[in-house]
Amino acid sequence: MTQDVTLAQVAKVFRRNGTSTPVFDDISLTVDRGEFVAILGPSGCGKSTILRLIAGLEQPTAGQVAIGGREVSVTDDRCAVVFQEPRLLPWRTVSANVALGARRRKGDQRHRVRALLDEVGLADTAKAWPHQLSGGMAQRVALARGLAAEPDVLLLDEPFAALDALTRLKMQDLLLQVREHHPQTVVLVTHDIDEALHLADRIVILGDTPARVVATHRIPAPRPRERSNPTIGRLRDDILHRFGVGVTPEREDTDCPGALAAD
Amino acid sequence: MATVHHSPPVAKAAVPATRRWRSGVPTPRWLVGLIVPVALLGLWQWLVNREVYTRSQLPAPNDVWLAGRQLWEAELLVEHVTISIERVALGFAWGAGIAILIGLAVGLSPVVDALLSPTIQAIRAIPSLAWVPLLVLWMGIGDQPKITLVAIGVFFPVFTALVGGIQQIDRRLVEVGQAYGLRGPALAWHILLPAAAPALLTGLRIGLAQGWLFLVAAELIGASRGLGFLLTDGQNTGRADIIVLSIVLLALLGKGTDVLLGLLQRRVLRWSDAWQA
Ligand SMILES: Nc1ncnc2c1ncn2[C@@H]1O[C@H](COP(=O)(O)OP(=O)(O)OP(=O)(O)O)[C@@H](O)[C@H]1O
Ligand SMILES: [Mg+2]
């Protein structure tokens, strides 16, 4: 597989009135073309910062960030971002917000926008203003906007966090279904281990300060996956164990088929 | 198909033109706004009746009305009003147009900001009347210096508001534009201008009000038509009724044109989720 997204020895330090916060001092990560990577890690460890670096919205303090071997820039045409907050443009209606995503696509944009709004369950709110939406509705509009762009690299920052459990599962399936037509590279940040296990080819776990990759798990099961897939169940236990939750001592030495690297 | 249950359609937020006050009687807003003017009218008539001032100092409301009718019958009233509106409209268009262009440049480019802002702030401090002799010297006594003076009056509030508005733009929304490939003029049109629109519209309304102020300054000197001329003419001929008539007309026109801009503001900012008391 060809490499698509690469972070090479990236350091990122935020400087703010005298104090400097090092988020990473040396992080490397590659994502193959068409691969679906999920990033897990504790709050504040730098997950959003990684996405912002890939999107070109943040400059690395050291190291390179590239897509397809070419360094990223702000207003990079190659990726679209679904931010952690919905960030809808308040002066655009719901459908005009989604249309911003579809802007660069050829073909019938209006039809595309309508179809996506329908799929996220918001066909009836197409003409509403963002301030009239609930948090979960706004997040679904933001998701539709990202999906409408059909970029080479789709960056998703906890896109389902504000949704109820059932809607969340449906949105996950929608994401997979859109990807079937357009197999884009996806980097998904999530706090939901089951979500990562259901969607991703590979799970990257961040930890420590400054953050580094503490573990990478390749998920061996093909998609679409049964949510009760036993291989995934074992992997899940292993990851939970890494976070120090819910594993009994005698299970501790069970080797995990998906574990690739744990440095 | 991953179709989720459809959320209920969201009702359009409406700005109430009529609201119930504590009494529970629904009252249109404009009716409430008339209370103070009517009270002032009453106070005026009362002062006249008490003869606090002589009739030539303070004319009765009816005198002013008659003065207005006289001018109307001489077909002068429409002419004075029209020429003043014309000057304000042209001056407003020029002043606001240039203010938006320079304001965008200053707001978007730190270099232009550093280059122009100090000078603009200094020019801003010049009082309106100080411009008049210079403009007359340069442009004579036709319409051009008057329109220019109005434009100068309109320029500063619009410019200041727009630059302030651009500097207040939420970085996160600009990032959305960038993340979806907007740059340069497209970014300015789709993100920066709408984000600065609330400030800009406030600036336009203040600019229009200032345009009327500067109009009077322009017409006080070297004019043969217009409401400012009518005002000086009343002074020179000792006609208090004419003076008051001009003042009332200026107030009405200022208010009327502001209402029009207010409607535009409501329309442009209909997405707004601003707090309403
Ligand atoms: N613009 C900034 N200025 C200063 N510090 C920042 C800035 N953006 C992020 N940080 C810091 O960088 C660290 C990582 O932030 P980031 O948003 O990437 O965390 P995260 O992993 O996405 O957390 P969460 O799961 O809570 O969203 C935090 O300590 C944060 O305070
Ligand atoms: Mg985050």
What can you tell me about this protein's structure?
The complex is a heterodimer of chains A (263) and B (277). Chain A has 263 residues and is an alpha/beta fold. Chain A has a domain of 179 residues: P-loop containing nucleotide triphosphate hydrolases (Rossmann fold, 3-Layer(aba) Sandwich). Chain A contains 7 helices and 11 strands. Chain A has a 7-stranded mixed sheet, with helices on both faces. In chain A, strands 2-1-4-5 form a 4-stranded antiparallel sheet, with helices on one face. Chain A is globular. The C terminus of chain A is likely disordered. Chain B is mostly helical. Chain B has a single domain, classed as MetI-like fold (Orthogonal Bundle), CATH 1.10.3720.10. In chain B, a hairpin with a 5-residue loop joins strand 1 and strand 2. In chain B, helix 3 crosses helix 11, helix 4 packs antiparallel against helix 5 and helix 4 runs parallel beside helix 7. Classes of the chains: A alpha/beta (263), B mainly alpha (277). Magnesium ion (MG) binds next to helix 1 of chain A. Adenosine-5'-triphosphate binds next to strand 1, strand 2 and helix 1 of chain A.
| Structural domain count of chain B | 1
The neighbouring-strand order within the major sheet of chain A is: 6-7-8-3-9-10-11
Strand count of chain B:
2
* Helix/strand structural class of chain B: mainly alpha
Quick one: CATH superfamily of chain B?
Answer: MetI-like
Query: SSE order of chain A, as H and E?
Result: EEEHEEEHHHEHEHEEHE
Shape annotation of chain B:
flat
How helix-rich are the residues of chain A, as a percent range?
25-40%
Question: Considering DSSP H and I runs of 4 or more, what fraction of the residues of chain B is helical?
Answer: over 70%
Q: What share of the residues of chain B does DSSP label as strand, in percent?
A: under 5%
Distance between the termini of chain B: 45 Å
- CATH superfamily caption of the domain at 5-78 and 151-255 in chain A: P-loop containing nucleotide triphosphate hydrolases
Largest sheet of chain B: 2 strands, antiparallel
- Main-sheet strand order of chain B equals 1-2
Q: What name does CATH use for the topology of chain B?
A: MetI-like fold
Q: Beta-strand percentage of chain A?
A: 25-35%
- The helix count of chain B comes to 11
CATH C-level class of chain B: Mainly Alpha
Q: Structural class of the helices, strands and pairings of chain A? A: alpha/beta
